[in-house]
Write a structure and sequence with these properties.
Elements lengths: L1 H7 L5 H29 L12 H66 L19
Helix pairs in contact: 1-3, 2-3
InterPro entries: CCDC17
Organism: Vidua chalybeata (Village indigobird)
Keywords: Coiled coil
């Protein structure tokens, strides 16, 4: 849970992830040890220290645990990559949205400036010429 929380909050430091995996390994070993002791007591045996597993079984347990931890590490790495990809996608879409809003604002401003320019420029109005008086037509 701690590792997942770290990854979901954006953590990706390999040293910290390794440390979290190491802590998880220790916890798993401790849990298996206590579970073995509890199982022994439940079966009606006296509360004596459990016998160490045979070397072959211990080797298989260690190998299985190592594979399990590597699998979890890879899952964590995948999760971290997904989180980073989602953040980049979110940042990209937010940037695109900001650009679209800025473009719309600038287009509106250009439109207002055009209207203002058309209203204030005297050379845009048609020139006023004096009416020419034509000579009277011969009768």
């Amino acid at each position: 849970a701690l590792r997942l929380s770290y990854l979901r909050s954006g953590g990706h430091d390999p040293a910290i992830l390794d440390q979290l995996l190491h802590l998880q390994l220790e916890a798993t070993v401790l849990e298996k040890g206590t579970a073995g002791l509890r199982r022994g007591r439940r079966m009606g045996t006296p509360a004596m220290p459990a016998e160490p597993p045979s070397t072959g079984t211990h080797g298989l347990d260690a190998a299985l645990l190592a594979v399990e931890l590597e699998n979890r590490r890879l899952e964590d790495e995948l999760l971290a990559l997904k989180v980073r990809r989602e953040r980049r996608a979110d940042a990209g879409s937010r940037a695109a949205q900001r650009h679209t809003e800025e473009l719309a604002r600038l287009q509106a401003e250009v439109g207002m400036l055009r209207c203002h320019a058309e209203q204030t420029r005297p050379w845009l109005h048609p020139p006023v010429f004096p009416h020419l008086v034509a000579p009277p037509l011969p009768s």
